[in-house]
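Two proteins, back to back. First:
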Amino acid sequence: MVQLQIISDQQHALPIIQSAIVAKVKRIEIGLRKTEQEIQKFESKYHLTSEQFMTDCTAEDLDGGDDEYVSWIGELQLRQAIREELHLLSNIEYVTQRVSD
């Protein structure tokens, strides 16, 4: 769990910060969908799951050789990174403290 402590003398600070994080999450989700589509293209083309590809294939097994191999692996790594970032941002617990003037 991630706790985000916000100390502010502005009463609207928390909603603004939450709104910015929600907007970031939405952008990340769009990126995740695009990455999933790219992965699906490879899986459909080769009739393989990505797990099978990672364990059973080499660049020589793909029509596009090294370029296609690196692209597929790159999309899988990108998907993992996006999922981790999304998980982190989606599980933030906000802790607020109002500072008096």
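And the second protein:
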Amino acid sequence: MTEKKPAHMRHEDWVERQLREARERGAFDNLDGHGKPLRSLDRPFSAEQWARDWVERSGGDLQALLPPLLILRKERAALLQALPTIGSEQVLRETVADFNARLLDQYRRPMDGPLIAVGVLDADETVALWQQARPEPEPVPEPTPPTARPGLFARVRTLVLNRRGRAPGADPFRTD
């Protein structure tokens, strides 16, 4: 659309001509949503819905639209839910300290929305919950002592006795 509108032509006619020529060239073929109805035509426009749709289309995280304290409340619940998966007590204490620092920092800021109560995590109580939630380690089975393999002479003797039809425990010097 680099050409200028002719001075004698109305703006609507020029736009319609541009659209018709693009349609004839096939410029609108194979577009996303081709042949599908437009979404959200049956409901009134809202800025929140537009923002939600835009975040979904761009592949973003919808949690970014939530108030910060609500995000921290969800993070706290997820942390307590994931206690059994945390590898060591030191990692848990560092995670709790980081969460508490971010929570207290958020409480010190001016409120952007409603006040949402989110409790600070006590590190010792969280470690106690972690210790209760961890699965017991499987007992290590005692190693079985290796069975001694018979020596070469004993194996040869067993083979010879088996060929003669005698049992392996029988007296080899007996001649029946």
